[in-house]
TrEMBL record:
Tree of life domain: Eukaryota
Pfam families on file: CBM_14
Keywords, in A-Z order: Chitin-binding, Disulfide bond, Glycoprotein, Repeat, Signal
GO molecular function terms listed in the Swiss-Prot or TrEMBL record: chitin binding
Domain Chitin-binding type-2: 16-74, 79-148
Record InterPro entries: Chitin-bd_dom (IPR002557), Chitin-bd_dom_sf (IPR036508), Chitin_bind-dev_reg (IPR051940)
UniProt name for this protein: Chitin-binding type-2 domain-containing protein
Recorded GO CC terms: extracellular region
Amino acid sequence: AVECGNRKAVLVPESSPGCEYKFGIYPESSSCSTNYIKCEYGYPYQTPCEPGLAYDDKTHSCNWPDLLLDQCNPEAVIGFKCPDKVDPHSVAAKFWPYPRFAVPGDCERLITCVNGFPRLITCGDDKVFDESTLTCEEPAHANSKCGHLKRK
């Protein structure tokens, strides 16, 4: 161990406009936001959460808006209201209690309802959304207009 003697730590933040400390992650506002402020060397940068997520000040990260009900309205963030009932013969019902729905015109995402609240799910690993199965598939296997899409 290193002996530091009688020196004391100085814990006064080096702040600048928009940044309490030179480095850190801070909420953009006190209300629900899909952005946050990231401070680097005292400069604030507005940073977006991934689509469908909102900033969570407790974890200093982005989270599902339905886990932030004290400040967020998931339906407003996602732009979708989960139905109270699902046709038992529909493809969406196959995923009950977490029914899935297409995002019109979006070949990379789908909506799933968790406890009655919408969550936007992004297909990963170069997969695309298949409207006929409500799943993410390899483009060559997708039975929809998304089957010919090459992911960016």
